[in-house]
Model the fold of this input.
Amino acid sequence: MKTLFKTIVVAITLFCIMAFTTINASREVNLVSTIKPFKTVPVEIPEIVKPELPKNQTGLFLSKLGYKESGNRYDAVNSYGYMGKYQFGRSTLEGLGYYISKEDFLNSPAIQEKAILDLLRHNRRVLKRYIVKYNDSVVNGVYITESGVLAAAHIAGPGNVKKFFKQGRDFKDGYGTTMTSYMNYFAGYELDI
Done:
């Protein structure tokens, strides 16, 4: 890297000298003799190291899911009453064993983060057969990965994900977002949940 930098500096210097010589030769003035050579000072150029993504991409997945659902706002409530960063419905929370007031849920990022991990684990158990069978394949024109299936189950519920695999049926939420768009958008994350 240092050798390349020095070569470029020398080439630019020679080009400038040649340009001055050519311009000034037409005037019969040789400015090159009046220009004092400059000293090159070695410059330390740090090596650029491309960071490797961590094997466990659960945090990236959750951040992207939270952003898609609520802009990563723990206090968000949509027009259908879904709450928090991940837009939980009351029945989903109670199904996971969270009997908590709306205010307490919205004011507790820790509970919301625990609830999303519980939901992902639950959906993984319910959909394990489909994940194992279809992972890394294309079904009904959609590339299937575990993270995509779990994101789809988050927006549509595991029952609708099963219908997709059995009957090819897609699901749209109240805002028109399709389950398959989540399968595509959240595909390929390596989750450790």
Summary: Confidence is low (pLDDT under 50) at residues 22-33.
